[in-house]
User: What shape does this take?
Amino acid sequence: MVWPLVELVYLIGFIIYGILGLGFVAYPPVWGGGTTTAALCILHVVGTLWSIQFVRACDYTTTAGAVSYWFCTTNAERAGCCGGAARSCRGWAAGCGLPRVLDAAWTVVSRHMGSLAFGSFIMTVVQIVRLVLYAIHTATKKTGAEDGSYLIKLLFRCAMCAVWCLEKSIEFITTYAYVHVAVDGTNFCTACKDTFCLIIKYPAQTAVNSLVKRLLCGVLLGLSTPFIAAAACFLYLDSRDDFTVHHSPLYSAVFVFLISWLVAAGIANVFEAILDTVFLCAFQDMDQNSPPLYLSDSMRKALGVDSADKEAGKSANYYVKTSERHQRAGNHGKVPAQADAEPPADAAPAGSAV
Assistant: This one.
């Protein structure tokens, strides 16, 4: 509960700094107006947006680092399987809760600041492009340049829609890239490449994870909590006659809605990082280890690992690598008789959806 408030405090501080700083820089008597004022305003806006994105990246990566350590240690139920993770995560990480998060934060600050700064700068560039397009669109509407020209309106709408899609795509890639940075310790470019490989290899699972994340964190937690809190505040104050005589409960309800929305957004961001990290760690464990080394029994059951193998039966052996089949058979290079057999009639083609 403490860590989301840290991000919230930093974000509110940078937003207040950005608004007050922009008012100070844009004030004509200070800089005299003209080109210098415009350039300073642009630099100030870029710096503020970059700072906000950087704080979000640090928070996301820190949470991912703490969750990945939990996945390889506390979550794993096999004795002696987590020596490597324990050696690579020393210090306060041996504890639970906030000490582990602080240890992950120190790892991010001491090793991954460059990757996070680069990723947040890419997001800032896309946001600046959106702001520039919106400013041009607003200016053309005020001057009447779009009047009577449906082609210009269509071009602006298409351009703004394309940039919005680009921003969401880059946000999706960078989110998983931050998790790769925390889990694997790679740089940002390598993390983006690994993210592309993950999406290409597991497109359906990645889409389901994103859908569940949006429904649970975005709708159930991020939207329902502020509305419920505001409605409860309004109904409670409206039922008190001593309050409604001199005050309106609407303003209090709006204030409660804003505060609860900020707190719920911070908590939802933590849950999103947890879901993405567990998803990535689970599939990396299943790819690199056969059987999975760090998946606990409860998580194996939740992901359906054992049930999937049981439902596939012997048909799954026809789509395993030949070297792995040889190793399982223990024939030391001899091809098993089953390897040359034809797949059963009820087996689905390789790569097709079951």
